[in-house]
Amino acid sequence: MNTIHSDGAVVVKKGEKTMKFRQVHLDFHTSGAIDGIGSAFNKEQFQAALKAGHVNSITLFSKCHHGYAYHPSEANEMHPGLSFDLLGAEIEACREIGVNTPVYLSAGLDEKLAVRHPEWLCLYSPALMNADYLEFKTPGYHLLCFNTPYLDILCAQIEEVMRRYHPVGIFLDICAPRDCTCEYCKKRMLERGMDPNNPADVKRNGIEVYEEYCSRTNAVVRKYNPDATIFHNGGHICRGQRKHAAFDTHHELESLPTGGWGYDHFPISASYTRTLGYDYLGMTGKFHTTWGEFGGFKHPNALRYEAGLNLAFGAKMSIGDQAHPTVKLNMATYELIGAAYAEVEAKEAWCDHVKAVTDVAILSHEAFSPSGAFNDIPDTGAARMLLEGKYLFDVIDQYADLTPYKILVLPDGIRFDEELAGRIRDYLAKGGKILATGASCLKKDKDEFAVDLGAEMLGKSEFKPSYFVPTALTPDIAPTEYVMYTDLYNVRVTSGRCFARSADPYFNRTAEHFCSHQHTPNRPGSEREAGVLTENVCYIGWDIFTDYATKGELHNKKIFLAAMDALLGESKTLSTSLPDRGIVTLNEQPEQNRLVNHLLFTATSVRGTNTEVIEDVIPLYDVKVAVRLDKAPKRVYLAPQNADLPYEYKGGVLRYTVPKLELHQMVVIDR
Q1: Average pLDDT over every residue of 192-199
Q2: 533-555 pLDDT, tens digit each
């Protein structure tokens, strides 16, 4: 286990500009066909709801996806069913009770303008070029291109909000690079020597258009307020896109577990975002499913758990709501939110200005192969295994400093150019260790290892699936053949020890020859080397992270855990008896000279077809934790209960037992 020192920690600078812990994102996407907008708004009722919810920041709407303004406007059109300055009234109500009010404008969507100017539509997919979409025959929004006159209108709308309301921040939604082929983008590409028929040029143009949009909108905000927060929301913080992340003053990690993101997404996204040096928050929703679900409510225990998860990963929190057109805030919603935020409020002192303590880094597959999906499959599999194995980890991109980490995990398909190969060689020479799988560590242009892994690459197997055969280095796996559904790269071990062996099936399943219901069994006598372990490298020839993310078979995780334990040895910072569904993190508060150990546990179940929900609180008792420290602590206690916890410090290891864990518990280690 690692010895922790407090020197060199990087934390977000203290001050009023850091994000508030207890935020609400108040959606207000309201059809122009609805009247009586804001008719039930009452300042005292609005304030009472926010107080019941323990809310200290709420994002309010200037303009929604339908395109209307919720205030008098010259740059836009006020909602036809609104007769007063709703945004102004909401801001006044919030400022009276000390609640922050960043302002929201829908950037990528404006349905009233899309109908009036279909030539401004963003055409970034063949699926969007069908007649129903272009002729507005189905209900739903239509994405606008920022490389059209629409951007001038949007900038004028932002300027009006800044001039009129002086908000603390601006939230711009539906913003991301698009592979657009509208007539404006085709013209732009031709003027710059690009080919609209070349996908690479279309992508390059989309990135340039997005960067121009960010630069122009940011300049408008900065014209009026050099300190206002700015966030461009695309639904996901894309790993490896640091230039785009830098257009934001902070990051809001939209991650509704029941809304398509799943419970895997937030821990991975936060583990990456915290390495970038920005303040950040996690954004979930009060909804049972996703945005815009009127009358849908998440169980309070789900929000309580998600709040604890945010704190454990160093994040503030935002909970999404959608106001009724009359703008009488739903008290059932704010009592639900308050159940979580009352606990957050009690825990904030141990959760602000923290630095994660980690042993391991996942070099993100997404950073090299961005897909735009919420969950990159190899990254998801790697993070899931590390969470279940109770390893402390970050997710990093190709620009990150590698030296703080003892082990670098390269999931499944990260091929190397010479620059990356040189960085990895330097990392290994300085004592770092790597665990690579599948095509990772191969050269970009050929199936040869770009760094010395103690083995010669023989190439991809012709068989799929194939079989894993345990060795003496995987003692926790019973001696038999295990099906592996992903590609296999066989190797010949040249130094170190054979970590894994493979076996071929009799043949691949085809119409001409197949066996049984799925795949052909292993052919005796076909075993060969498929993995290597040296002092500082483990290579496994299958895409085990993809396999685990998509199939979840236990032997993949056991292979991984055997490799990690062989590489880490006794240097693992933290160990715990927490079961596989539990989550553990360790954060440092340098200014207070303390560590905060977060422990979480819940059980999820699937309701309906694919909605993963949390309902019951299942307590755990006598959870054991061991943390390696360089000296005995001054005090160990439970927070926020402020209850002393018995502990033992011996041989550089601190040991304690948490008597009871319900959803989320913090243990504070004063040094």
Answers
A1: 96
A2: 999 999 999 999 999 999 999 99
Closest by CA to 574, choosing from 598, 605, 550, is 598
Domain spanning 574-670: CATH 2.40.50.140:
no
What integer pLDDT is reported at residue 412 of this predicted model?
Answer: 95
CATH number of 358-571, picked from 2.60.120.10, 3.40.50.880, 3.30.70.260, 3.50.50.60: 3.40.50.880
CA-nearest of 479, 484, 463 to 540 is: 484
Number of other CB atoms surrounding residue 16 within 10 Å: 7
Question: What's the CA angle centered on 281, arms 279 and 282, to 5 degrees?
Answer: 155
Euclidean distance between CA atoms 339 and 322, whole angstroms: 18
Q: How far apart are CA 104 and CA 266, in angstroms?
A: 23
For the stretch 250-276, pLDDT in tens is 999 999 999 989 899 999 999 999 999
Instruction: Give the bridge partners for 600, in sequence order.
Output: 583, 664
Closest CA to 286 of 265, 306, 269: 306
The helix/strand/coil state of 7 is coil
Q: What percent of the chain has pLDDT over 70?
A: 97
Alpha helices by DSSP H, 28-117: 43-52, 86-96, 111-116
Phi-psi region of 150 (alpha: psi -120 to 50; beta: other; left: phi over 0): alpha
Q: Beta-strand (E) ranges in 157-235?
A: 169-173, 229-233
Write the single-letter amino acid at 403.
T
Backbone angles phi and psi of 348, in degrees to 5: -55, -35
Tens-place pLDDT, residues 119-161:
999 998 777 778 888 888 889 999 999 999 999 999 999 999 9
> Which run of H or E residues covers position 253?
strand 251-254
Mind listing the pLDDT tens digit for each residue in 391-417?
Answer: 999 999 999 999 999 999 999 999 999
Length of the chain in terms of residues written: 671
What pTM was estimated for this model as a whole? 0.94
Q: What would the two tokens of residue 389 be?
A: 């194995």
Q: What are the tokens at 526?
A: 């076909």
Residues 580-603: tens digit of each pLDDT: 999 999 999 999 999 999 999 999
Tens digit of each residue's pLDDT (9 = 90 or more) over 469-512: 999 999 999 999 999 999 999 999 999 999 999 999 999 999 99
Q: Which parts of 494-536 are beta strand (E)?
A: 497-503, 528-533
Q: From CA 457, how far away is CA 426, in angstroms rounded?
A: 21
Q: Where are the beta strands (DSSP E) in 323-454?
A: 355-356, 360-363, 393-396, 407-410, 433-437
Q: Which two tokens stand for residue 118?
A: 């279909």
Q: Strand 433-437 and strand 407-410: pairing?
A: parallel
d(C-alpha 16, C-alpha 23), whole Å: 15
Query: Which residues, at least 6 apart from 655, have a Cβ–Cβ distance to it below 8 Å?
Result: 624, 625, 626, 647, 648, 649
- 224 phi/psi in degrees, rounded to 5: -110, -25
Task: State how far the Cα of 95 lies from the Cα of 233, in Å rounded to an integer.
Answer: 25
102: tokens are 């960043």
Residue 258 and residue 297 in contact, taking contact as beta carbons nearer than 8 Å:
no
Domain-wise residue ranges, the chain: 358-571, 574-670
- Rounded distance between C-alpha atoms, residue 139 and residue 132, angstroms: 10
SS3 of residue 261 by DSSP: coil
Q: Between helices 300-312 and 331-347, what is the axis angle to 10°?
A: 30
Strands (E), 541-590: 574-576, 583-589
Separation CA 434–CA 405 (nearest Å): 10
Q: How far apart are CA 351 and CA 354, in angstroms?
A: 6
